[in-house]
Amino acid sequence: MKFSQIALAVASTLIAAQAFAAPVTPAEIAAAGASVQKTWISGASAPTYNIFRGFTIGCDANTVTIFHNSATTTAIKPGSTGDYNAYACKRGGVISVLYSTTANGSFNAYAPHIDGVQLSRIRNVATAASCVKQASQLTIEPGNNADVYRACAIGVGATVADGAPTLPAGGFSDVEAGLFERDVSTVGTEADANVGQAFGVAVSTNLYRALQVAQGKYASVAAANAADPVFTPENAPNISSAQYTSIIAQGSGYQTDWSPILGAAGNGKKIVLVRRVDTSGTQASSNAHFLQKPCAGANGLSPAGLADAIPGSFEISEQSGTSGVKAAMTTANNAGDFAIGVMSLENDWRRETGAANAQYRFLKLDGVHPEAGSSDGTTFVTPVGGLTVNNYTARKTTVDGDYRFHMELKSFVANTADTFGSALIPEIAASLGNPVDCADVSRGLTLNPLGGSVCNVAPATSLPNAPFVEKGTRFGNNCKVPQLF
Question: How many whole angstroms separate alpha carbon 341 and alpha carbon 325?
Fold first, then answer.
């Protein structure tokens, strides 16, 4: 078959356009003016990278640009670039920009629309002077790289006059609004995002070792350090849900010292509880899982807050972000105190780039470790300490239904959302449950079987991060017991 000269010319033009396509620049955004499609989302931080990848679906090849507020010169991947990001690309030649704010957690997917909370976002992506272009690019996929700008200025969306949205169109939450004891049905629409997040009970490293000794795994801390230098999940100590509940519930029974769990070694040793603020999806997940609040109604327990601290025995630290939790645990560890709290499993002590955030480890919960069986066969050298460790995807026990501390995410579209945001948020939600690239599924995230994912459910050399798809679901209600099928 012979192609006509017109067909050949069109094909040549398309190939040339893709070959010479380049990431969107601030100058291009400025020049495009009112023709730029712009929207803004807020809420959960755990799926940040996967939300970014959902945005890139439909983008013209090699046109993606990332803007972030972090001052770091090394972070280029959304999810490691802080709480304020923006992404730009061309779709059929038309520039689109998505602003993303994850500061203060999941509840902020809803708060601007039910409480009038004013959030901040990156501003002036159309002004190169407001950011610093990084030399390195993010490889989205082979042959498709994104430019990255760092240290971008932020401002309260309702007050910055940069022509970008003044209110988020909606966003994503670790849990439904009902777990924050709020009804959003009159201000927007919630939907299942068909992706789940595993959470874990984390402790300071010194408490992890003390628990190993108390539970008879090793004769001493020195023996544990020698025999288990890489903190293999199978060797981890255990905490029961009843024990953790008895630490975190308001006025509960394990708030004097660590003796109920450590025996004599815990006598007089103060408890440092590091929790998240009430707007956090992590905190809402902890409340629902351990305290049955608000799932059990009047029978649920209230979480201990700052006012419930007991001088000298029960210290409470309340953090707005996970980085604060890690820093507080590390500070306690370095001071010789024992700290405990909850984190989502996208966090990994092995990959912390600074010593100030690295002294935490995850426990087994009710006998099951969230990382067990999830090594993908690769190893790397830790930035802090230089240990050679396995890479864990932290989802196999969740996928199998053995590990239960797991929540199903929600998307939310506000009634006030702009046209672009109203269309984009459901598209991103669909991509979360059925990602364009299975290998993009971040550590600790799982895919709901109702999302229609084509990702392999068993390990394969072509998909070393498998399995991905859960064997069951809560059917979008995080107060329900998960059912396998």
Answer: 8
Cα(219)–Cα(222) distance, integer angstroms: 8
Q: Would you give the distance in Å from CA 268 to the centre of its chain? A: 35
Angle at 255 between CA 249 and CA 257, to 5 degrees: 150
3-state secondary structure of 406: strand
DSSP per-residue codes, 183-241: --TTTEEEEEEEEEEEEEEEEEHHHHHHHHHHTTS-SSHHHHHHH-TT--GGG--EE-H
10-residue block means of pLDDT along the chain (485 residues)? 33 43 95 96 94 95 96 89 96 97 95 97 89 94 94 95 95 98 98 97 98 98 98 98 98 98 97 96 97 98 98 96 94 98 97 94 98 94 95 96 98 98 97 89 94 70 76 96 92
In terms of Cα–Cα distance, which of 218, 233, 229 is closest to 397? Answer: 233
Domains annotated on the chain, with CATH: 21-169 (no CATH), 196-406 (3.40.190.10)
CA-wise closest residue to 56 among 77, 74, 75, 32: 77
